[in-house]
Design goal:
The chain is of the alpha/beta class and 406 residues long. The protein has 16 helices and twelve strands. The strands form two sheets. Strands 3-2-1-4-5-6 form a six-stranded parallel sheet, sandwiched between helices. The protein has a six-stranded parallel sheet with strand order 9-8-7-10-11-12, with helices on one face.
Length: 406
């Protein structure tokens, strides 16, 4: 299904469904009773649509596992499940995938999900999504006694009933990593009202590093040689020029990537630019390469590297320049320097964890124009927040890094 279709279903079907189910939820909770501290023995995390958020949520999941001795479960859209395989915090057998391609598949998967949750005996659910009615319904049908998730509390709008019985007030002014940790703190019983009053120290946001074998690195190097047979171990620079259809306004202009690439190639004869992407993005990537003057040292790797080879690829590269998208977060589990172009989103909320990410961000008066309040939808077509980032600004910063490594 298209993203806008899912938004409409979530609004027009989600609101009445949440209202009806809330009555059942309140009555059920009265009969069950409410303990002082949530039971986190078998906790289900819910994050369907964002691959990057699954990485940002990893510290919060690890904290719950370490401090609550919790067995972790996860539900996610099938196309995004690979993001959980990078750090392997959640065992593969504890992951449930859903298909969003049609309403029929989604309905069938909801029935399977209910059965799966009964079999797994979920005791607690943590909804990581920002005010999605569908995920609130999933929380309810998980049959978890304790259901943690974001609440608008005194804020207007964003209604999704009373399916979340351990609400946490969402804070749009702090990084999503902090917001996710706050949900875990609520599940651990560190505070008992919607305001997440527990301090989240910086050390709790530290991201685990992925294990990368020399064998996997060698396989990646072989593929690079296959793409560029005359490669003599020139420094590998990664360009990720696309972004998901969830928010296409995040894309920097293809011509801008081409200009930066051609100027870096002219300035640094010891680099090879590898353009990354999925198989479906091959044509989009090739278009950028075709616009790159003197782009003989550019290669199109869209569809060449499997998802499992991305982390090894990042491990043998010098840096990556990317739109605000999943690869920026996948790379954060390595030591790769990542430069991220932010437009309608903000790095204050979504800069990759790990300490190696640096944003390009204009911070216009209209930015960010997408938020939890509008379900991350914008009608802006001019996109000055992203198109206004100059090629000269990007080129100079990348050039300094290539020259001095800082």
């Amino acid at each position: 299904m298209k993203v806008d279709t899912m938004r409409k279903i979530d609004k027009w079907a989600g609101v009445p469904l949440c209202s009806i189910l809330s009555i059942v939820s309140v009555i059920t909770d009265l009969f069950r009773g409410k303990s002082g501290r949530p039971s986190v023995e078998r906790t289900l995390f819910i994050e369907l649509s964002e691959m990057g958020s699954a990485i940002i949520a990893d510290p919060s999941m690890r904290k719950l596992k370490a401090e609550g001795n919790a067995e972790l479960f996860f539900v996610i859209f099938r196309d995004n499940v690979k993001s959980l395989e990078i750090l392997k915090t959640v065992p593969a057998e504890n992951i449930f995938t859903m298909r969003p391609d049609s309403l029929l598949h989604l309905t069938g998967d909801l029935i399977r999900f209910i059965i799966w949750c009964r079999q797994k005996q979920i005791t607690c659910s943590i909804d990581l999504e920002l005010f999605s009615r569908f995920t609130a319904i999933l929380s309810f049908f998980s049959f978890a006694k304790d259901r943690v998730g974001y609440s608008s509390f005194h804020d207007e709008g964003m209604f999704r009933g009373w399916l979340i019985n351990r609400p946490v007030r969402y804070n749009p002014h702090v990084h999503m990593g902090v917001n996710f940790i706050s949900l875990t703190n609520r599940a651990l019983g560190f505070y008992n009202n919607p305001y997440p009053t527990s301090l989240v120290p910086q050390k709790e946001l530290e991201l685990a590093r992925a294990a990368v074998s020399e064998e996997s690195k060698d396989k990646v190097r072989e593929k690079i040689s296959g793409l560029y047979p005359t490669w003599k171990n020139e420094r590998v620079v990664l360009f990720n020029v696309n972004a998901s259809d969830l928010l296409p306004q995040r894309r920097w202009l293809p011509a801008n990537f081409a200009i930066v690439a051609q100027n870096l190639l002219a300035q640094f004869p010891d680099i090879l630019i590898v353009f990354t992407g999925s198989p479906a993005e091959h044509g989009y990537v090739q278009n950028v390469i075709d616009m790159t003057i003197g782009g003989e040292r550019c290669v199109n790797s869209a569809g060449v590297f499997s998802f499992n080879e991305l982390v090894p690829l990042y491990s043998v590269s010098t840096f990556m320049i990317t739109n605000d998208s999943g690869p920026a977060h996948f790379a954060s589990v390595t030591d790769l320097k990542v430069f991220v172009l932010f437009g309608p989103e903000t790095p204050h909320l979504y800069l990759p964890l790990g300490g190696n990410a640096e944003p390009f961000y204009l911070g216009l008066a209209c930015s960010p124009c997408v938020s939890a309040a509008n379900h991350r939808k914008t009608s802006c077509t001019e996109r000055p927040c992203i198109t206004g980032i100059s090629t000269l600004q990007v080129e100079e910063r990348l050039g300094r890094f290539l020259s001095a490594g800082v």
